[in-house]
Amino acid sequence: MQNIRNFAIIAHIDHGKSTLADRMLEITHTVEMRRMQNQLLDSNPIERERGITIKLAPVRMEYQGYIFNLIDTPGHVDFSYEVSRSLAACEGTVLLVDATQGVQAQTLSHFHQAQKLGLAIIPVVNKIDVSSADVAGTKKQMHDILGFSSDSILEVSAKTGQGVAELLQEIIKQVPCPVSTLSTATRALVFNSNFDSHLGVVAWIKVVDGEIMAKDKLQLLITKSPAAAVEVGTFSPARKPASKLSAGEVGYIVTNLKDVAQLQVGDTLTKVPVSPNLVALPGYQPIKPVVFIGLYPTEGAEINLLRDALSKLKLSDSALSYAPEHSPALGNGFRVGLLGLLHADIVQERLEREFGLSLIASAPSVSYQITKTNGEVMFISKAADLPDISQVAQISEPMINLSIFVPETYVGTVMQLCQNYRATMLNMEYLNKLVHLTYRMPFAELIRSFYDQLKSASSGYATLDYEFTGHTPADLAKLDILVGGEKVDALSQIVPREKADGLGRSLVEKIKDIIPRQNFEIAIQAAIGGKILARADIKPFRKDVTAKLYGGDQTRKDKLLKKQKKGKARMKRVGQVDIPQEAFLSILQV
Q: Residue 262 to residues 85, 109, 221, 268, 307: CA-CA distances in angstroms?
């Protein structure tokens, strides 16, 4: 264990984590040169195409008699949970900052996470070979914001390999070796898992105490599920079988589990017989989804395939949650809980690519806390689930603390944008050409295109990070859409009362253009309770009943028009409005 170093690389998105991991693999000769490619640890095609890391990726390297277990982590705010799991399996971390962009929102967030866990942090400035790099300015930012002394900050170029060998030496010096606390029992932390169609459930573990050998009988301490070590091994970066995994090592176990629900990330594996009074390792806080979308198969018969696909995807993405739901417009599907908009986009793309599904996704929504008049508290993620307003005492919406880093030039436009999105300023700090703004903001506003607007307002220079802070009572109301006097639940929304008029008008106008004309007039209305906020009418088709008349008295025309008017009124009473699926989709996918 003295020669083992477990560490992660953390940084803001696109600061060069995966590229630095590539250079380390080359220097330690872990991967043959002919097999090397850029972003080697990003094994998912979506990661390569988008140039982002989605999943944590472990790899074992051997260098100068030391064993390095490196975990490459994502940088986007939606995948912070992956970072927390990576750090729990490490004793140290490399904090990477891009010399062309400086300290950004996720840099600060990941730094605080590592600090809370008491990890050794090695500060590194990357991309020193780029002509626009401001190494001195970046070091000053790291000193002012993160508190590192300028002498302790290393300089590397992950692209050319400059300074990477020196960084490996610093990891040997600064990252402590793992420590085993129990000499008589075996405990291993499950920090990730995946489902292999041939092998079944594969657990990714860090052995904390004892050792696990192939063929050992095991048990999970939290779920109490029995398991067996069919195969054990390490990542290099492909799975490489070994005879055993000892304390301090990071690797995998091919279990005999076939049911994905039997293994939870954060659980503790131990040998059978289980030692009495054995305590499970501290795992992870159960993750709470903050964004909800409805996923529906375009072909209703594929609903079972979608259920299987979601259960398998949940094994490698423990932040995913789902429950069945039915939409009158789109049929049977699932309400899927996620960590953010990018997470939602990635999950939908993975389901379509990896499982061959064709899906329709509804617009994202958030979870509201409803306090009923009898004191009961419930959570809903769509307006159709809201109880009758007479039973509702209070509606609370989810709030976030929003952290924005933006150059001084764009501060005014960004502050104006935040005010338009119901945000309240908490703090403003000037940091060497950068300004750090902190806001308290309803999470529902963030998912309504705020990120796109922020990028436009700052010419792409602003970066954001957010932290969920709980639910706060707000003046919200259920905005109903009535078509021909009938309430359409699928089009209802929960909105701030102050914005209800504008939203109602825009929704009514949009639906008016989509629903086809009928032989009778159709009224489209937006209402809160019994109060109508907006209305638009779809004019009926009208047959020219007077065309057959040639001259004559006006009363002949009036008689025919009166007869037509009665027929129209009768048709309006009994007529059914058929709302096309495009109407639902245009609103659901706003």
A: 19, 32, 11, 12, 17
CB atoms within 10 A of CB 565: 10
Paired sense of beta strands 359-361 and 291-297, if any: antiparallel
Report whether 3 contacts 65 (CB < 8 A).
yes
Looking at the DSSP bridge assignments, the partners of residue 392 are 372
326-379 pLDDT, tens digit per residue, is 876 677 888 888 877 777 888 888 888 888 888 877 777 888 888 888 888 888
Q: Say if CB 106 and CB 75 are below 8 A apart.
A: yes
pLDDT value at residue 127: 85
> Which residues, listed in sequence order, are joined to residue 464 by a DSSP beta bridge?
404
Burial class (CB in 10 A: 0-12, 13-18, 19+), 575: middle
One-letter amino acid identity for 143? H
Bridge partners, residue 268, by sequence: 189
Given this model, what pLDDT does residue 590 score?
A: 45
Exposure class string for 1-12: b at 16+ Cβ within 10 A, else e:
eeebbbbbbbbb
Q: Report the alpha-carbon distance of residue 564 to residue 227 in Å, rounded.
A: 77
Q: Are 235 and 43 in contact (CB under 8 A)?
A: no
SS3 state of residue 392 = strand
Tens-place pLDDT, residues 14-70: 777 778 888 888 888 876 665 555 555 445 555 555 556 666 678 888 888 888 888
Per residue in 538-550, pLDDT (tens digit) is 887 767 767 677 7
Residue range 144-201, pLDDT digits in tens: 888 888 888 888 888 888 888 888 888 888 888 888 777 778 888 888 777 777 777 8
Bridge partners of 207, per DSSP, are 188
What is the β-pairing status of strands 120-126 and 154-155? parallel
**Three-class SS state of 347:** helix
Closest to 16 in 3D by CA, of 167, 221, 196, 235: 167
| Residue ranges of domains in the chain, CATH in brackets | 4-174 (3.40.50.300), 187-271 (2.40.30.10), 291-364 (3.30.70.870), 369-473 (3.30.70.240), 477-588 (3.30.70.2570)
Residue 204: count of CB within 10 angstroms of its CB: 23
Return d(Cα 420, Cα 453) in angstroms, integer: 11
pLDDT of residue 328: 67
